[in-house]
Amino acid sequence: MRKLYEFPLVMPLNQIKNLFCILGLAMICGSATIAQTLPVQLPEICKTNESFSSVDKELKDMKKDIVVLLHGIARTKRSMHTVEKALLKSNYQVLNIDYPSTKKNITEITPVIFDEIKRLSQENDVRVHFVAYSMGCLIVRDLLAKHPFPNIGNVVMLAPPNQGSEVADFLKDNLLYKYFYGPAGKELTTDFARKNPFPKMQHTFGVIAGNVCLDPLCYFILPKGNDGKVTIEGTKLEGMSDHIILPCSHTFIIQNKAAIDQVKYFLKNRQFNHADTK
pLDDT tens digits for 240-277? Predict the structure, then answer.
């Protein structure tokens, strides 16, 4: 039987540290990340879609607002399924877009997503909202800066690395990190965020940050007050209409009921329901 992996019995300390950091990040990002690196065939549900999705169902109700969902790095649109179901129940039309987050950088991803949104904007006389998670928030910022729409509604950012991530800083030169996260991985560092700022957001947007760190490795990398990937301060952005902190981790915030309830509340009211957090 062919061996999938062979590890030396003795490894230098720095290699052990880097290996466990990468494996920890990969596990927390989900099975899609690991699936891309394994030399065996896995069920399709575990694989990251490497092509941009077209609209997989027609948005026929011309009276319902549309919500565009954008997942994070090393994820697929399946990771946003809980958010999608909740918004559908709240009488929104939903476009959950898949994109190759580990194959292209942000500026290469944006134009193709624009083509999808442009068509929706032209064919539907309703508002188009955005709900984005992690790196998806950076894509929204780039998209709306380059391609203004006349009927954009509200934008909700979940755990956005608006000021970059210290975890990406720590791992940016690691070969495994580069392999896992591709060109976009380097765009998640604090240095890149500082030197390559997006234009100021011109639309109404709110930010949801988490304060639970489940990753014991990242606990020692990040300053106090973080979700295991980005700091609370790092989620903030000039011009935001509202900001709220919830007891969520970066990984699971998109499955968290309280976070999803806040998404729905902001889309409707342009502010979060802070009474629910007291």
Answer: 999 999 999 999 999 999 999 999 999 999 999 999 77
Spell out the residues 6+ positions from residue 42 whose beta carbon is closer than 8 angstroms to its own: 35
Domains located in the chain, CATH noted: 13-277 (3.40.50.1820)
Each residue's pLDDT tens digit, 159-180: 999 999 999 999 999 999 999 9
- List the beta bridge partners of residue 132: 70, 157
User: pTM above 0.70?
Assistant: yes
DSSP letter string over the chain? ---S----S---HHHHHHHHHHHHHHHHH-HHHHHTT-SS---GGGSPP-S----SS----TTS-EEEEE--TT--GGGGHHHHHHHHHTT-EEEEE---TTTS-HHHHHHHHHHHHHHHHHH--S-EEEEEETHHHHHHHHHHHHS--TTEEEEEEES--TT--HHHHHHTT-HHHHHHHHHHHGGGSHHHHHHSPPPPP-SEEEEEEE-----TTGGGTSPSSB-SSSBHHHH--TT-SEEEEES--TTTGGG-HHHHHHHHHHHHHSS--GGGG-
Taking CA 236 as the corner, what is the angle to CA 230 and CA 240, rounded to the nearest 5 degrees?
145
